[in-house]
Structure formats: structure tokens, C-alpha cells
Write a structure and sequence with these properties.
alpha+beta; 22 strands; 28% helix; 24% strand; globular
């Protein structure tokens, strides 16, 4: 007999299978010895009250062994010799595009400007050790894209765009924990995701596709208003799915010069806010003892409106690190990540202010991108023209005071005390100050000088949108060009980029059938 139940239990019950079986037996009148297995289908934490509960949806197997698979597998046929499609970029958008093309019987040729996921590690280490940023291999460029070494969070609100469950199941098929299918806020972890990405690449190659690293697209090949290929180390022919990520500024410049229609898009700009993880646990779990033995590192989410613009937390990383995410010289950009166990002494989140195109002077499509660049360069100068990031204690920032010293931080290249309230654009700093006051009233202890603001967070999303047809997903004017994922302005995170990649693959297949 197999039954499913929605239950609400204490954290120590949810965390221990024997305790959970005993609870189910007592609650539903089973003999505990007859329960052969319990599969957790959905899991979320309810921390609204002082007593914390875990909400579970479980499948209980009584007098029978679990017989269903942990996840749904996808079959990938051999596509050697089949019609090819060029996929530019091996981030989540590009990888899921390539896998879906294989499902549809097409041969993907993936071109990635950066290095494979393992070779990237050496260049990431040099950012800290040598204060050197490789413009082709960094936290944004390389196999896996920006998500590979910046957390691997899989939570998305974009469920209306496509099958998010399919994306999670494909991750599981390639080595991710099946816990991501159950958790309300699924997370693979920066230490685990590279192995999953490598397995996805191996599936592409084993199925007859190609993946080329250190192969940077420099130009599209056009015949009239039709893309027939692109130029990288050589010419590659086929429709082009452009999944280059939100930091490929050279691609945006090329498209602008080639008069390929784009539009300026809003972004969000601010800082990384880092607290001791123990403090966040105490606040969110309403206990001086913090998370205790059975709860994970606590998360938070804040949002408010200040002077007509949103101020909110973004990409919260409990038990994580702040990392240097610049993609070129004379830039400082910060981001956050967490290992799978979320076990560090710090928790951080982007704290950002909504920035709309009309908030930036100018009338061209790249004006928001230039705003990003100018702020990142300003930050680099404040950091002594190294990857040392300017920082300020949280209460000092709110009260327009200098920070004469700084707390210990996870940011490996180092921090330098800097008056962020003075040099950051007032449209950003003033709204952050007021937003922090609001958040401090909602969560007692959150607004504190134990927390550090680390500047600057600018790469929250693409500063442009490459305009495409709503139905065909092709560029509005150019056939055979499919702008895809976060870099094209149609996704925001790993899962939504994967969903958009699958949709673009399907649109490309329809296009190929019409030729």
C-alpha cells in the first residue's frame, strides 16, 4: 500500500527517518515495522512563529518496497550526422538548449568563450592570489556560466514560462541530489554544481554534439535578413541560439554596431550585505540558540518601496561567501555563493535598488550598461585599483558615518573601509539607507554594525533586451537568430534560463522544419 500525506512536524522529526516513521505510525495507525520507506516529495520550513515546524508532503510505502524512480529520466538519442544548430554560450541557457536539441533530433554545436568548469578554477584563484581578472575566464565566463561558481540556487518564480520540474529532473539525472525536487528553495551548491555541469557536457558529446571551449563568437554570418551561422575560431553554419549571459558586453556592443535591434532594460544595483550567519539564524528562528542541530542555515527575503522604486534582497546565500565577479580590468563587482552544506560563518545577500532605463541619462540602448561600467570602475578606484572591495559597516552607512574598522569577512581578496554613503549614486544610497531602516524594524537585530556592506552589486540581470518575436522566439527582424536566456533579457537565474533554453531549442526545431 502506498499513501501520500501532507504533514507538519518538528524539525528533529523531519530530519530523522526513524523518528518520521514513528510519527507517521502514531498519527495514521500503522505498525511502524510495516513502513518500508518514506519518500519526501515536498519540504518547506515554517518559521513564522517561535515554534518552528517543517511542512512535508510524503509518500509512505506500507508492506511494499519503494518502486518508483527518484526522478524522471530523459532519453538522449544519437544525433551524429543530423542537422546542426549553433549554441553560443555554455551557461544554463546554452546547456539546456543543447540537451533539448538532442531530444528533438538536432545536433548542437556549443561555442563557449571561456574554459571548461575545472580549468576555470585556476583563473578564479588568481583573482584572489594575484588580483588578476582574466576577461575570458572568471566567475561569469566559462562552462556553466555565472551560476557554476556562484551558488547554484534553483528557486524561480517563472513557472508560467515552462516546465521547471523538467529542469530539476535533468539536473538530478546528471548527479544533483534529489533533494532539489522536494525543497521549497532548492540549491545544489557551488561545490557540487561543477560535477553536474561536466556530466551534462558529457551527455552532449556522447550523443554526437560538440562543445568547444575558448571559442569566442565575434560575428554573425548574415544573408540578407537571415542568420546562417557565426564566426569564432572558424565559421560555423546553422541557425544561432545566442545564450551569452548577462555580462557579455562585447556581444551587446557588436549587436548595437550591427544595428540588430535591442532595447535598454532595467536592472537592480546595490551592495552585498554580509552578516554573521549565527545572527541571521537567531533572528529568523526567534531563538538565541540559532538554528540548533536540526535546522539549516536561515534564509531571509525583504522587499519595500522607497521613493517609487523597489528596494529588496536578492540571491540570498546562507552560510556562504562573497566573491569577486568582475569580467575585465578596472572593475569591482561582487556576488554571493554557498557550498552545499551552507556551513560558513557568514550569510550574505544582494541588497539592491530598482533602476529603470528612464533613471539613466541618454537615449541609446547601451546606456544602462554604461551606468554599470562607470559604477564598477568607480568602485575599483575606491578599492585602491585592485580587487580589494570598498566596504562599510551597516549602521555606519545608514547614519552617514565612516567605519574605522571592519568585521572579519568571507570576501577573500580583502576589504577596505570606504564611505559608500558618500560616493555611491544618491539614487541608490539614499534608498538603501531607508530600506535598511524598514528591514530593521521588521527583523529586530538585522540593522547592525556587525553587518558589512560590500560594494558593488551590479550584475543582477542583463542591461539590455535583444528583441524577439513572442511566438517564434526569433529576433524580430532577423530569421535564424534566437536570443536566449538571461543575457538576452528573458530569464533571471539558472532554472528560468534552462526553461528558456528548452523553449528556444523547440523554436529552432520548428524553424528548421520550415526551411
Amino acid at each position: 500500500m502506498t499513501n501520500e500525506y501532507q504533514i507538519r512536524v518538528l524539525p528533529e522529526v523531519a530530519a530523522q527517518e526513524d523518528r518520521l516513521k514513528g510519527w507517521l505510525a502514531d498519527e495514521y495507525g500503522f505498525d511502524a515495522t510495516t513502513i518500508c520507506g518514506v519518500r519526501i516529495l515536498k519540504r518547506s520550513i515554517d518559521a513564522r512563529q517561535r515554534q518552528i515546524f517543517v511542512n512535508l508532503k510524503v509518500r509512505v510505502y506500507v508492506n511494499e518496497q519503494p518502486h518508483d524512480d527518484d526522478f524522471v529520466r530523459t532519453e538522449y538519442p544519437n544525433v551524429e550526422g543530423k542537422s546542426q544548430v549553433i549554441v553560443v554560450g555554455a551557461g544554463p541557457g546554452g546547456l539546456f538548449t543543447a540537451l533539448r536539441l538532442i531530444e528533438l533530433g538536432l545536433r548542437p554545436i556549443v561555442l563557449e568563450r571561456g574554459k571548461d568548469v575545472h580549468e576555470r578554477k585556476k583563473d578564479l584563484a588568481d583573482i584572489t592570489k594575484k588580483q588578476k581578472v582574466d576577461p575570458e575566464s572568471n566567475y561569469c565566463f566559462g562552462e556553466g556560466g555565472a551560476g557554476a561558481y556562484s551558488d547554484g540556487k534553483l528557486y524561480t518564480r517563472s513557472k508560467k514560462r515552462g516546465d521547471t520540474d523538467k529542469i530539476l529532473n535533468v539536473f538530478c539525472q546528471h548527479g544533483a541530489s534529489t533533494a532539489i525536487l522536494a525543497d521549497a528553495h532548492p540549491h545544489i551548491g557551488t561545490d557540487k554544481l561543477p560535477m553536474v555541469i561536466e556530466a551534462m557536457r558529457n551527455t552532449i558529446i556522447r550523443s554526437g554534439g560538440e562543445v568547444h571551449f575558448q571559442t569566442k563568437m565575434t560575428q554573425l554570418i548574415l544573408e540578407g535578413n537571415k542568420v546562417i551561422g557565426c564566426v569564432a575560431d572558424k565559421e560555423y553554419y546553422g541557425p544561432v541560439i545566442l545564450a551569452t549571459g548577462h555580462s557579455a558586453r562585447d556581444v551587446y556592443r557588436y549587436l548595437s554596431e550591427a544595428a540588430i535591434e535591442m532595447e535598454a532594460k532595467g536592472i537592480a544595483v546595490g551592495v552585498r550585505l554580509e552578516h554573521p550567519s549565527e545572527l541571521i539564524d537567531q533572528i529568523q528562528y526567534h531563538s538565541k540558540y540559532g538554528r540548533g542541530r536540526w535546522l539549516p542555515a536561515a534564509e531571509y527575503s525583504f522587499v519595500t518601496q522607497i521613493d517609487g522604486r523597489g528596494v529588496y534582497s536578492f540571491c540570498m546565500c546562507p552560510g556562504g561567501f562573497v566573491i569577486p565577479a568582475a569580467t575585465d580590468k578596472e572593475q569591482i563587482v561582487v556576488n554571493g555563493m554557498s557550498p552545499s552544506n551552507r556551513g560558513t560563518a557568514w550569510s550574505n545577500s544582494g541588497m539592491v535598488v530598482e533602476l529603470r532605463p528612464e533613471d539613466v541619462t541618454g537615449d541609446d540602448v547601451l546606456k544602462v550598461m554604461r551606468f554599470q561600467e562607470e559604477l564598477e570602475k568607480m568602485c575599483w578606484h575606491q578599492g585602491n585599483m585592485r580587487q580589494t572591495a570598498p566596504a562599510q559597516r551597516m549602521s555606519d552607512f545608514v547614519n552617514n558615518r565612516l567605519s574605522y574598522d571592519l568585521p572579519k569577512s568571507s570576501y577573500a581578496p580583502g576589504l577596505i573601509s570606504s564611505p559608500l554613503h558618500f560616493w555611491m549614486p544618491k539614487t541608490i544610497s539614499k534608498r538603501l539607507q531607508e530600506g535598511f531602516k524598514v528591514f530593521g524594524r521588521h527583523a529586530h537585530g538585522f540593522l547592525t554594525n556587525e553587518a558589512t556592506l560590500i560594494a558593488v552589486e551590479t550584475r543582477t540581470s542583463s542591461p539590455v533586451r535583444i528583441v524577439r518575436n513572442r511566438d517564434t522566439l526569433q529576433h524580430v527582424r532577423i530569421q535564424g537568430l534566437f536570443p536566449c536566456g538571461e543575457g538576452a533579457g528573458y530569464a533571471g537565474g539558472i532554472v528560468s534560463a534552462g526553461v528558456d533554453g528548452e523553449r528556444c531549442a523547440e523554436a529552432a526545431a520548428q524553424y528548421m522544419m520550415s526551411l
